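F.,

This is the one I mentioned.
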């Protein structure tokens, strides 16, 4: 019984001294900050270059080129959600980058 009480005292002392950290997923944290970006800092999908597009999270050279190819073949983007029609970009990728882009 004494060992149990001693153990509980040690655990409670550790719990009191241990700081509580509330961690968020990195995508939640980036969405919270990127959602506050002014429209001037967002990338326009209809005028963006490959160099600008590769700065988006998860977008490399091939996806950037696919976005531009889609734009050249189909025409200008009418809305950001239209990105899911680009090969290699699905709903998950769209949710990562939609707050960084706009369509003018």
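My design for it:
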């Amino acid at each position: 019984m004494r060992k149990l009480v001693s153990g509980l005292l040690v655990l409670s002392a550790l719990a009191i001294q241990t700081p509580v950290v509330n961690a968020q997923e990195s995508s939640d944290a980036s969405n919270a900050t990127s959602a506050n970006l002014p429209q001037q800092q967002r990338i326009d999908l209809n005028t963006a270059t490959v160099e600008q597009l590769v700065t988006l999270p998860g977008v490399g050279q091939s996806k950037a080129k696919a976005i531009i190819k889609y734009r050249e073949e189909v025409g200008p983007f009418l809305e950001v959600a239209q990105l899911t029609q680009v090969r290699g970009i699905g709903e998950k990728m769209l949710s990562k980058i939609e707050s960084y882009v706009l369509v003018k």
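Residues 23-33 have pLDDT under 50 and may be disordered.

Talk soon.
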